[in-house]
Design a protein that fits this description.
- The complex is a heterodimer of chains A (457) and B (395).
- Chain A is elongated and about 105 Å long.
- With 457 residues, chain A is an all-alpha fold.
- Chain A is built from 15 helices and 2 strands.
- Chain A has one domain.
- The longest helix of chain A is centred in the N-terminal third of the chain and has 46 residues.
- Chain B has 395 residues and is mostly helical.
- Chain B has 2 domains: 252 residues, no CATH class; 56 residues.
- Chain B has 15 helices and no strands.
- In chain B, helix 8 runs antiparallel to helix 12.
- Classes of the chains: A mainly alpha (457), B mainly alpha (395).
Chain lengths: 457, 395
């Protein structure tokens, strides 16, 4: 009997107007989004390679110790061909941290007209379609009189509920599956877009999350359909709940978090950083300035440089102290800033849409975690770079003037951001998977309870 | 007869479930938005004042705009929290403009999708038309009556929101600010009527209410969500504007090449006189700055061209026109940002003082306002013509 109900639901839906509309919408929006974002990804990859080439050329031309700078940059995440709208895609420029290269935000249009990528199609359009597939599941059959006919036979309510749910859900995700296959073909046909095993795994996990996410709205619509008396009321309530979950709650949570946990004062932070730098310049900077501004011998200069670079010298001790102090200040600042971000994420977790967005961002390498990882990598690289710089000075410079002379800097370490593995990305997103499953279970149980108690006459 | 139809439609809606739901949604959304956006504006203003006094009045940042409380627009990008909280780039601002753009337009669909097809299914349309009432009066009466009913919860919530903003003293409400607010509200009414009209039009060309609901919602999703962002991606392929990073690296390369050249010349010519050396360095910096400016000007030109193309393509969607017009009236739009950037290059304080007046803002927003009005007229005409040929009989 269950199979019969499932088959009937699938066939009824396949021949319905809403299935046709869903299929057309999915087959238009999803492949179009993939096609355009693929081009965008290729452009960004080309831009990144161009920046690397420009930097290497600049390093070849410069070749003196005092003119070398690290380049903190990362290639676009390959899964941004589908999931582009993420925190790690913004350009962050902060003199106290470094410069991160991401998407150029000097174009104001994307700020006014936000991006609609695969994540948004799945998160917004598919959830809306799920509502449209489910809002009249019981109401229309109740009104049409067919529900009481079905239940007057020897078929249990739980079989009816389960059969309708499975049949309806299968017909709902069919357009998604078909359009995703077409999108993947469009993306993979290009030799510049190559997915490694870990990327395929991450993509698979994102789609698993998407299927769970879509079923939340489908189940929610079923629940509302079971407790409503008219299809208009069912549609209205379902869509209002959708509006709240998808479009209101995530957006409001950021402002609520901003009110409850304001960002720490950047002025105070910058003042403290400048104070730390002043300590370094205070004694030794003045010594160097005093020597260089008066006539002096090469020996005197060499002696001062040796003193500055001595491992157990006062300068090195102060330098290490200043680096440690700046690291502490930075960490304190980040902790307070992260307090707002974490609170916003916690509040917005009441919205399955926010959970799915974080999950997709985390697994695709375009989310908040990627930005945090980049910041940590920069923190790890900086001491390595400083160590290299000091080593080069000790090796090649006898006087301060030698720092400006040509030196072989081809062995300078390069900053290279390595994307975290799938397991690390999954551990970041596990909580959101769990929340999505819990939402599903709660709504399904609510639908079950509501349907068991609802009158069918 | 027209007045009777309008009254009847209005009263039917007032006692309907969707009216109550719309009223609750409007009150919750607009009042929450007013509270959160006012607090956000206050916080940004405090940060700006603190930063300004730190830098002894010479801060190179844009003063937060008062009407960003209603339409954050590009004021978003200058915000302190926005720079340090990445979630602002993931989710949209919950401002008045966003609520109207998304929630009110959705409510408009609810109020209009069953206006004709729903009555046909219920059998009452045939009864109405069997009397001596013209089709034009029916369609006009239904349009006005249902639209007026939709506007009641919106206007109640907006009035309370404006009172909240005024009483909280969070923004300086001079006369011009009130006029701008009034214009934004009027424009919002025009925008919502576009989607209302769309719903009526689809209701007239379909036979079943459920069909018109599905079609209306799908079109809503495409127009609000998909079209604007697709326009952004499509226009990037048409115009190749160099990125900030590219220009920065080129500038760095120019500086380094010039410094190396200057050092070489100083060594070759054995110039030891400090004044001569400084003179050479100053000349070198003049050349560097001129080349930097050339790069910046080229980039600015290409970027503005890209923005212009993107705006034109995205205007396929009424929501884009609405966003452009409202942000212009609120002074948080593209043109205001561009004017600020042009003047701020020399003097940021002057740029903050020198903002577009009301007449200039209206002039800039006029094409988008006109577009929304034209779409309204076309949708009404479409619905009118379709209804003249509509089969009202219940099959």
């Amino acid at each position: 009997m269950l199979m019969t109900i499932i088959k009937k639901e699938i066939l009824t839906n396949l021949l319905s107007f809403r299935f046709a509309v869903s299929l057309i919408l999915c087959m238009v929006l999803i492949p179009m989004s993939a096609y355009v974002l693929k081009d965008d990804y290729k452009q960004e990859l080309s831009d990144y390679n161009g920046r690397v080439a420009l930097y290497e050329e600049h390093m070849r031309q410069v070749s003196s110790i005092n003119n070398i700078n690290p380049m903190y940059d990362k290639a676009p995440a390959v899964l941004s061909v589908m999931f582009k709208k993420g925190a790690a895609n913004r350009l962050i420029e902060d003199g106290s941290v470094g410069v991160y290269y991401g998407n150029d935000t000097s174009n104001p249009i994307p700020i006014l007209l936000p991006l609609f990528d695969m994540g948004a199609v799945l998160g917004v359009i598919l959830s809306l379609m799920a509502i449209l597939f489910g809002y009249d599941a019981f109401v229309s059959e109740k009104k049409g009189g067919t529900l009481k006919l079905v239940l007057s036979n020897s078929v249990s309510r739980s079989q009816v509920l389960l059969g309708k749910w499975i049949g309806g859900y299968v017909s709902l995700i069919l357009p998604l599956v078909l359009s995703t296959i077409v999108s993947l073909m469009i993306v993979l046909i290009d030799p510049l877009v190559s997915l490694r095993g870990s990327d395929w795994l991450a993509l698979g996990l994102i789609f698993l999350g998407a299927f769970i996410y879509i079923s939340i709205f489908f189940t929610l619509a079923y629940f509302i359909s079971a407790i409503s008396r008219s299809f208009a009321a069912s549609a209205l309530i379902s869509l209002c709940v959708w509006l709240f979950i998808v479009l209101i709650a995530p957006n409001a949570s950021i402002y609520i978090a901003g009110k409850l946990r304001p960002m720490p004062s950047i002025q105070k932070f910058q003042r403290e950083m400048q104070e730390a730098n002043r300590k370094l310049n205070q004694e030794h900077g003045k010594k160097i300035e005093a020597l260089m501004s008066r006539p002096h011998t090469e020996e005197e200069e060499a002696q001062l440089l040796k003193e500055v670079l001595a491992e157990d010298g006062a300068f090195t001790m102060v330098f290490r102290g200043v680096i440690a102090e700046k690291k502490r200040l930075r960490s304190e600042f980040d902790q307070k800033a992260n307090a707002q971000i974490n609170l916003a994420r916690q509040i917005s977790a009441i919205s399955p849409y926010a959970c799915f967005t974080y999950l997709a961002g985390s697994l695709s390498g375009t989310g908040v975690e990627a930005e945090r990882d980049l910041s940590q990598e920069e923190g790890r690289f900086f001491p390595e770079f400083i160590g290299y710089l000091l080593g080069k000075i000790k090796q090649n410079a006898r006087t301060f003037a030698d720092i400006n002379k040509r030196t072989d800097t081809s062995d300078m370490p390069r900053f290279k951001y390595v994307e975290p593995g799938v397991s690390e990305r999954l551990s970041d997103s596990l909580i959101y998977f769990l929340l999505l499953v819990i939402f599903n279970v709660v709504f399904f149980m609510a639908s079950y309870a509501a349907f068991l108690r609802s009158g069918v006459r | 007869m027209l007045t009777s139809i309008i009254k009847r439609e209005f009263q039917d809606n007032l006692f309907s479930f969707r009216f109550s739901v719309t009223l609750i949604i409007c009150l919750v959304l607009f009042l929450t938005s007013a509270y959160l956006m006012s607090s956000d504006y206050q916080r940004r203003l405090e940060h700006y004042s603190a930063a300004r006094s730190e830098q002894e009045g010479k801060l190179n940042e844009r003063l937060p705009i008062p009407l960003s409380v209603l339409a954050k627009g590009l004021d978003n990008s200058m915000g302190y929290d926005q720079r340090h909280n990445p979630l602002f780039s993931v989710f949209d601002s919950l401002d008045f403009m966003y609520i109207v753009k998304v929630a009110l337009s959705l409510m408009a669909i609810f109020f209009s999708f069953g206006v004709i097809s729903g009555e046909k299914e219920a059998g009452t349309l045939a009864l109405t038309m069997s009397n001596s009432v013209s089709r034009s009066k029916v369609i006009l009466g239904k349009w006005i009556g249902n639209y007026a009913a939709l506007m009641v919860p919106f206007l109640i919530a907006v009035i309370i929101e404006l009172l909240m903003i005024n009483l909280s003293d969070s923004i300086n409400t001079e006369d011009e600010v009130w006029i701008r607010m009034g214009l934004i509200i009027l424009l919002s009414l025009v925008y919502v009527s576009v989607f209302f009209g769309l719903g009526v039009f689809i209701s007239v060309i379909t036979q079943k209410a459920s069909t018109s609901l599905i079609l209306s919602l799908m079109l809503w999703a495409v127009l609000i969500l998909a079209v604007p962002s697709t326009a952004v991606l499509v226009s990037k392929r048409a115009v190749d504007a160099p990125s900030t990073q590219e220009v920065r690296l080129k500038k760095q390369a120019i500086r380094q090449a010039a410094n190396i050249e200057t050092t070489r010349k100083l060594e070759e010519n054995s110039i030891s006189d400090p004044k001569e050396r400084q003179k050479m360095r100053d000349e070198s910096w003049k050349k560097i700055n001129a080349e930097h400016k050339k790069l910046d000007d080229e980039r600015k030109l290409k970027l503005r061209h890209l923005v212009s193309i993107t705006k034109d393509i995205s205007r396929i969607s009424p929501s884009s026109s609405y966003v452009f017009a409202v942000t212009t009236l609120a002074r948080t739009g593209i043109e205001d940002r561009q004017s600020y950037d042009d003047i701020a290059e020399k003097d940021a304080e002057e740029a903050n003082r020198n903002q577009k007046d009301l007449a200039e803002s209206i002039e800039v927003a006029l094409p988008d306002i006109a577009l929304l009005l034209i779409i309204n007229v076309l949708l009404f005409m479409g619905a009118y013509v379709a209804f003249m040929h509509y089969d009202v009989r219940l099959r």
